[in-house]
Amino acid sequence: MASKVFVSWSGDLSKKLAEEVRVWLPGVLQFVKPYFTPNDIEKGTRWSTEIANELESSNAGIICLTKDNLNKPWILFEAGALSKNFGKANVCTILFNVDSADLSGPLTSFQATKFDKADFKKLLITVNNTGGDSKLEAAVLNDVFEMWWPKLEAKVQGIISTHKEGDGNSIRSDREVLEEVLELTRINAKRGPRRGEMSRDIVLRLMEVLSDMQVRIFKMYGSKQGAMFSDEMRRPIKHLCMEYGEPEMYERFLMLTERFMMKDGPDGPMLEKWDNPKG
């Protein structure tokens, strides 16, 4: 029986690297069936039923991290959706030109894999262990890895060496980023999220991004535009916070909006981060 591996990516460089991993894996472990969507969700593709189903039915997840996508909300969302099925043991991050010290928040709790021979072999062992009766014996796995590793290493090094910062990535406006995070909250509201589906750290991170983006909208576009976004976000944020038993988060969201509208205005200070209100 095939073992389904969801390959998560975000951004042009991450996409190219993830595609090489997708092609490479079944060559080494023939029972593996990778799922890799060619569409960059962050560039306008709405969440689809197909992707949601793949996340829920996967046996393992591989998250391709680069310097430009460490804190992207979609990466965090997919990581949470993967881990809720089988815990964190079978969710692995691959660090491409990124150090584990650069990770923060919920991504630090997953198995971090540097893109080098020794570390990548550990990731392959994790994926192999999801194969049940189809998994390879240790000696066989070692032999096929030794044969296939140089091919992947050469491909990845070639992609990284020719990549230029900013290739294929136009700078997105704060409004676009805010809409992206808003879409995440809508997804959770529509799907009727169950407590524990995403870790609380991921919810906190989403709220932190929302607070920062809300401040920037008020500063750049004024109170009218800021109020419009706050009104649009109110219902899905309330649903998300209540589902996770965190009414304090929702109350803080309302307080931040009121503070900007009535006191600080567009020239006021940046708002505080979403620390744990329960201490």
Question: How is the topology of this model organized?
Answer:
Elements: E1 3-8, H1 12-28, E2 32-35, H2 49-57, E3 60-65, H3 73-86, E4 91-95, E5 111-114, H4 117-128, H5 138-162, H6 174-191, H7 200-243, H8 247-264
Parallel strand pairs: 1-2, 1-3, 3-4, 4-5
How is this structure best described in words?
With 279 residues, this protein is of the alpha/beta class. It has two domains: 160 residues, Rossmann fold, CATH 3.40.50; 94 residues, no CATH class. Helix content is 56%, strand content 9%. It contains eight helices and five strands. Strands 2-1-3-4-5 form a five-stranded parallel sheet, sandwiched between helices. Helix 3 links the parallel strand 3 and strand 4. Helix 1 packs antiparallel against helix 5, helix 4 crosses helix 5 and helix 6 packs across helix 7. 35% of the residues are buried. The C terminus is likely disordered.
